[in-house]
Specification:
Strand 4 and strand 5 form a beta hairpin. This protein has one domain. Helix 1 packs antiparallel against helix 2. The termini are far apart. 29% of the residues are buried. With 148 residues, the chain is of the alpha+beta class. The protein contains three helices and seven strands. The structure holds zinc ion.
């Protein structure tokens, strides 16, 4: 089994248990794919309107979500990607992605470890709610700030 097949198997299995993209065990499977199976590559999962998963991976800073994959049904329910170095926040690239997709994407998660993730929704598009160890902080988008 190659890496793509291995992570597809792991992530689909977890998703099929609950069909809930906010589920902790689903996020754990994505985190495990990113940090154990791929040994620290970034994983991205897009859940479309029909609950189909689009899974890809790459090196750090990778966001391969500029074009709509074939067959994807809009609006996107959720975009999830990992920061395998262990810090959940939105980079400049991540903000640009949610800014572009905001009309057609309901929620997003960035995963930074066990019990550590950022959650975004398109009703409050300039805020990322970062959860860590049961507490949370807010990251605000300041437009014009080009810092990565
Ligand atoms: Zn990111």
């Amino acid at each position: 089994m190659n890496n793509q097949e291995a992570i597809e198997t792991e992530i689909h299995k977890a998703f099929n248990n609950s069909k809930d993209f906010s589920d902790e065990s689903f996020h754990s499977a994505i985190w495990n794919a990113s940090t154990v199976i791929l040994n620290g590559l970034e994983v991205q999962v897009v859940i479309d309107a029909k609950n189909e998963l689009y899974i890809s991976y790459g090196t750090a800073g990778f966001v391969d979500f500029k074009t709509i994959p074939e067959g994807m049904k809009l609006p996107v329910k959720c975009w999830i990607h990992t920061h395998p170095f262990g810090a959940a926040y939105f980079s400049g690239t991540d903000w640009r992605t949610v800014n572009i997709w905001q009309p057609l994407m309901k929620e997003a998660y960035v995963l930074g470890g066990e019990d550590h993730f950022g959650h975004w929704n398109n009703q409050e598009p300039n805020v990322l709610c970062i959860h860590k160890d049961g507490l949370y902080t807010l990251q605000h988008q300041y437009k014009g700030d080009e810092e990565e």
